[in-house]
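FIELD: query
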Amino acid sequence: MAEQEKELRELAVYKYGFRDEDARYEFVVPKGLSKEVVEAISHYKGEPDWMRKIRLQALEIFFRKPLPTWGADLSELNFDEITYYAAPTKAKFRSWDEVPEYIKRTYERLGIPEAERKFLAGVGAQYDSEVVYHRVREDLERLGVIFLDMDTAVREYPDLVKEYFGTVIPPTDNKFAALNTAVWSGGSFVYVPAGVHVEMPLQAYFRINAENIGQFERTLIIAEEGSFVHYIEGCTAPIYSTNSLHSAVVELIAKPGATIRYTTLQNWSHNVYNLVTKRGVAYEDAKIIWVDANIGSKVTMKYPCVYMVGKGARGEVLSVAFASNGQHQDAGAKMIHAAPYTTSVITSKSISVFGGRATYRGMVKVYPGCKGAKVNVRCDALLLDEISRTDTYPVMEIEEEEVEVAHEATVSKIGEEQLFYLQSRGLTDDQAVKMIVNGFFRDFAKELPMEYAVEFTRLIELQLEGSVG
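FIELD: result
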């Protein structure tokens, strides 16, 4: 009975926990990971030989690499019980009317057609292992902007993909980067020509539907000199009693004077291991901004990174995490200063409630000769009860004297005085807590487009139900 109540409670606060009972798959590989599985994925996709070789080399690296022993507990993650590829359809649809009905119903419930009606610059929708719908505005196509799913980019722009694929995050980087490189499917490829500003966001939505499945999208964004692009991704999955794995790789290249803004709203269900590697390279006077929200998942390990390799480059990470019962949000950022007069800003905010655990794990490195570098790190954590936990693990490696470095961290609880003041103005306990939490996350919400800010606030309020009393 207690287990049923727990499941009902999870469903009550996680509106995307539905599953598609009539889902059908055109091609599914057997559970577990092997050379045969990787070759079957590559063969089914009709990939060129150079990509198949990249996959097989990465698989060998994956088998050699150990699981990380730091961070979140990964002991329950069983790689032999995961399905690494499940394709609902081989077709890629540019018209919403052509999408299969059962997939269409899922995305209508998630709001993808609504996003289309709001005239976003482009929309991509991935269902389990494959992107099933993709569209970009014709005026951007005329300017030379490329926004495709990654599989199509391998076929249509092989020279571009070969030039940049794996250059920012090689498969040797970590075990999950190797895993993604071996079995990647879907994701986005974005190319913005020099001087082009994509004013409206490009959007992608990732949906896990099947049980015990892994989703391994690969995203590569190249912004040429003086260009600008904003990319937004969202993620959901049904609630199952068994675990699923999401292990993406995101590579960003910002050429001189370019700006890339990458926004993630992660709201996976509480049975998903979210183990993601994200990194960008910023050249002279370029800027890379990561805006990252982690609300869902069982375990998250994610540390967006910027390598500032050109004079005057700038990296920013604004990260928020909400950890509830049974969740460990191990998130943070990495900033690498490899050129003079570079600037990095890390702002991390987390809330823990119902026994959840939030961890900030960050690293800043300033190499010798990077004079004039500026570093600002701020970590704020809010505990809503006595059984939750928060940790901070900052690392600073400063090898240059002529720099400015600031680090500030706070851990706080909601005070009785705050609650009393708001209650005296007629608010209930729950309303008072929600107002304080919304204020705590206000700076993050301000960085989102309006419809995303509204959705983010509503999701946080749902997660807070019953946090007082």
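FIELD: remark
The first strand starts at residue 27 and ends at 28.
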